[in-house]
Each structure stands twice: as C-alpha cells, then as structure tokens.
Design brief:
Blueprint: H1 2-14, H2 17-52, H3 65-101, H4 106-117, H5 122-148, H6 164-188, H7 192-200, H8 205-234, H9 237-242, H10 260-267, H11 274-303
Helix pairs in contact: 2-11, 3-4, 3-6, 3-8, 3-11, 4-6, 5-6, 6-8, 7-8, 8-11, 10-11
Amino acid sequence: MSHTTTRQTRSGAVRRPGDLAFSGASVGSALLILLILAGVAVFLTTEALPVFGADPESITEGEGFFAYVWPLVAGTVIASVIAMIVATPIAVGIALFISHYARGRVGGVIGFIIDLLAAVPSVVFGMWGWQVFAPKLVPFYAWLEENLGFIPFFADGSATGRTLLTASLVLAVMILPIITSVSREVFLQTPKLHEEAALALGATKWEMIRTAVLPFGAPGVIGGTMLGLGRALGETMAVAIILSPGPFSWNVIGSGNKTIPSEIALNFPEAAGLRLSELIAIGLVLFVLTLAVNLFARWIVDRRSEFSGAN
C-alpha cells in the first residue's frame, strides 16, 4: 500500500505543469546551445572553403594556407600556455588563502578585489600593458638576453617591451580572476569531515590541505584553468594592442609574433574576397582548437569525478 502511494505521488509530481515547463525549458536551452554551436561551425566551414581550394600563391605569405596559419597557431598557443602557467599557481594560492587561511573579513575583501579584475575591459588591460607594463619589463628582457641568450626563447630582447611574453603576462592577469573564483568555490565545498579527519590524525594545516582539500578540488581547478585558457586563446584587443606584429619567432622577448585573434582583429575591417575567407578560415582553426581544449578538460574532469565528498 505504501509502495503504491509513493508511486502515485511521484507520478503526480512529474505531471505538474511547472515541472513540465521547467523540464521543457531546460531541454530547449540545451538544444539551442547545440544548434548555435552547429550554426557557427557550418558558417565558418562554408565561408572558409574557398581558401582550401585556392592557389597556394594567392594565400597570404604566398606558400599556402598551412604556411600562413601555423605561425599564428604557434603564437596563440605559446601566449596562452605561458599565461596559464603563470596564473594557475598564483590563482590556486590566492584561493587557498581566502578559503582556509584568511581571518575575518580579509578573505572577503581580497576575493572582492580579485573579482573586480574580471570587470576591467580588455582594452584597458591592453593600454596598461603597452604604456606601463611593457616599458618596465625592458630591463628584465635585457637581463634575460645577457644571461640566457643562448636559449632561443631569450635570444634578442626588445627595446620597447611589446613582446609575446609581455602579452602573455597581461593575459595571466586577465585570467587570474576566473581561475581564482572557481578554485575558491571548490575549496570551500570540501567536506568538513575530510578536513577534521586529517587534523585528528595529526596532520598539520598544510598537510590537511594537501591530502584533503587539493584532491577534492582538483577537478574544479582543472575546470577553472581550462576556462581561463579558453579566455586566453580567444583574447583579441589586449594582445593586438600590446604586440608589435611581425614574423613568427620562438624568441618570446623580441619584437614580432602574432596570434589568431589579433590577426583577425587587425585585418578583418578591410578584408574582402579571398582575404576575408582566410581570416574566417583561421577563425575556424581557433574554433576547433578551443573546442579540443574544452573536450580534453572535460575528459580530465570526468576521470577524477569518482572522488567526491560522498566517497
């Protein structure tokens, strides 16, 4: 009798108009996102097709599409990876301080300041990086050239500071709030029983964080890092303002180098014909690259999803 009543109650709850409306809206929203994504992919592919069938000499640089796009991909990836390497440990450290070390309102104030960075327009970051940050890095680049010039990355320092490394460091500042916010929220969700159990077994606070908090928060940190990487891969104005465009070079402290977003931003307004298709084609490459990064991040998170507060 009890079983029948429960089944009837559940059946009645499913048939409520509000539940049906919410379920339909959720499914519709998910399908809409997929349709938009498919529409973007179809548009980029259709508009980029003329490039793949064109004479290689008619493509920018005169050596075919691959010769044109790979320096842009390399510059984009190098800048984004450097930004992620610099920003991730700092962001995780800030998140741990806010969630487990800060006392009173100190953590809230620091978290608020970090969150404010996300509200700063990228153009402002670009102007700051060009006018203020880049000149201050020139002596550091000179030191790198003098002491580490035998490494191709530091072979020749720029006299203006408008380099790929400068752009990468500015990108690191821009993605810092994203990684910090996600990591902080994940660390705050760590089950108290896990933390108390570690402390009860004689662990120090850092040992407790290392054995209980970081393993629990690892999927969230990875997710936040990938969100930041996605922002870095697609950043346009800040990089376009800071970089002094030129041929690709592995030297990150020298003038030159370009990224896909900056190449599109600087050339799209005046592009037409095959040149327009070229820019759309490199946009398609960036789209595929970003999608691959997010799928890889999803795979990593899924592999660690078995660890949760319920284990």
